[in-house]
């Protein structure tokens, strides 16, 4: 594959630039502690696990919740607060507690050095289905554009969100690489949209036969080496 014409690299965020599971676990615990103080009727009747099960059910009720995960959590909070006799308006400050925790991420050690290595060579952007705030996290300065599904209106693997990022960078899809950890949303989604796709395999997972990424990397150092080779 000719890599000399790659002009832009787009990144997924969760489990590509940082580990998301411990972040969500802590953010949900912080929210639950906040509910214990401000909406005790909810905590008396619900656990963190039952609240998660409610969101899963709610997500199946409306396609918009697959695109807007913030709206899903907000709507689930309104429903549970109302059901247990608490003020549904508490959903707003509750979401701020969760969002603060959601953005308290620690990038993998290779991320900032890798981005600094790539930035002089290619244009950089992000495309994410989550609602991480790169400004709060402290990584926004490394990217020219960042597109989040809940703001854009469609989510990966829809090709329009990949194409919108390419358009924003003024780079054709065939000259763009997308880097992500999810084989369906990131690798197949990007390839079907006409981009190259790199599987960021930080957790030593097995690659199934039906997916053929353009490259497999364990970190951004390997990505930079692959692009330079």
Structure notes:
Helix content is 49%, strand content 12%. By secondary structure, the chain is an alpha/beta fold. The chain has a 6-stranded parallel sheet, with helices on both faces. Helix 8 links the parallel strand 2 (123-128) and strand 3. The longest helix has 18 residues, at 21-38. The radius of gyration is 19 Å and the shape is elongated. It starts with 7 loop residues before the first strand and ends with a helix. The mean pLDDT is 96.
Task: Give keywords.
six-stranded parallel beta sheet; 12 helices
Concise synopsis of the structure shown:
This protein has 229 residues and is of the alpha/beta class.
Radius of gyration: 19 Å
Strand content: 5-15%
Count up the helices: 12
How many E-type strands? 6
Largest sheet: 6 strands, parallel
Indicate the mean pLDDT: 96
Structural class: alpha/beta
Q: Which segments are poorly predicted (pLDDT under 50) over 5 or more consecutive residues?
A: none
Helix content: 40-55%
Distance from N terminus to C terminus (CA atoms, Å) equals 11 Å
Form type: elongated
Summarize the helix and strand pattern as letters: EHHHHHHHEHEHHEHEEH
């Amino acid at each position: 594959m000719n890599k000399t014409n790659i002009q832009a690299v787009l990144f997924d965020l969760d489990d590509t630039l940082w580990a998301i599971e411990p972040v969500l676990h802590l953010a949900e615990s912080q929210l639950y502690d906040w509910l214990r103080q401000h909406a005790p009727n909810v905590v008396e009747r619900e656990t963190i696990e039952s609240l998660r099960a409610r969101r899963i059910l709610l997500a199946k009720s409306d396609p918009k919740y697959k695109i807007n995960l913030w709206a899903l959590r907000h709507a689930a909070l309104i429903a549970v607060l109302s059901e247990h006799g608490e003020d549904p308006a508490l959903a707003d400050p509750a979401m701020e507690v969760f969002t603060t925790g959601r953005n308290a991420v620690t990038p993998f050690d290779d991320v900032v050095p890798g981005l600094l290595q790539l930035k002089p060579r290619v244009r950089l952007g992000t495309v994410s289905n989550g609602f991480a705030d790169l400004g709060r996290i402290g990584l926004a300065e490394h990217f020219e554009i960042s597109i989040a599904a809940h703001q854009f209106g469609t989510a990966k693997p829809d090709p329009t969100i990949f194409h919108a990022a390419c358009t924003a960078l003024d780079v054709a899809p065939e000259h763009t690489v997308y880097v992500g950890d999810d084989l369906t949303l990131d690798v197949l989604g990007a390839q079907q949209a006409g981009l190259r796709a790199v599987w960021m395999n930080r957790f030593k997972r097995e690659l199934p036969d039906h997916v053929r990424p353009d490259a497999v990397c364990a970190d951004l150092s390997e990505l930079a080496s692959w692009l330079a080779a």
